[in-house]
Amino acid sequence: MNCEFSIKTFDELTSVDLYHILKARSQVFVVEQNCAYQDMDEVDFDCLHLIAHQNQALVGYCRIIGPEFNPKKSLEHPSYSMPAIGRVLVLSDYRGHGLARQLMTHAIKHCRKKYGKKPIIISAQTYLLSFYQSLGFIPEGDYYLEDNIEHVVMVLPILKKVKVKKPRAVSSEGSGFVTKLLSFLLLVLGLMFIAGLVYLMT
Description:
202 residues; four-stranded antiparallel beta sheet; three-stranded antiparallel beta sheet
């Protein structure tokens, strides 16, 4: 599915942008999931809002929370601040075309570009576990209920580059010794061959 992606701070959102974002979030997280909860929170003010448009209509959305505003912590690294991705949604008419993967890929790339090589944390609904694992996220800890829906903390780690050790070059001294030894053995074999020929001829 071909979409246009835009990313804006809260202050850059127009009133029309904000209306469609909140409408989509309410439609997916409140109505579809039959979950009465307070979707609008104070975190929105400090987020980046990633919007997927098709023919100028909002079809997908997520928000990116910077490390300095992110209350979520990794269980393995509780003192480490990292960016988070949340409120990930694709409207029902546009699902099944790979848009969620495109949306997450854009969000991950933007996190890397803006916040550097830091792990990224999410609070994933467990029915989407395999989807997020396919993007490289690793579950941490036990499942838990949030607004009566089962979730799990997942972290996308930074893959460290493994340095391949180059084989040691043989020192010139070592190679010189081997060359001399081989030359000596060849000389001995040559002399023995000649001695053998002389013996046969006499």
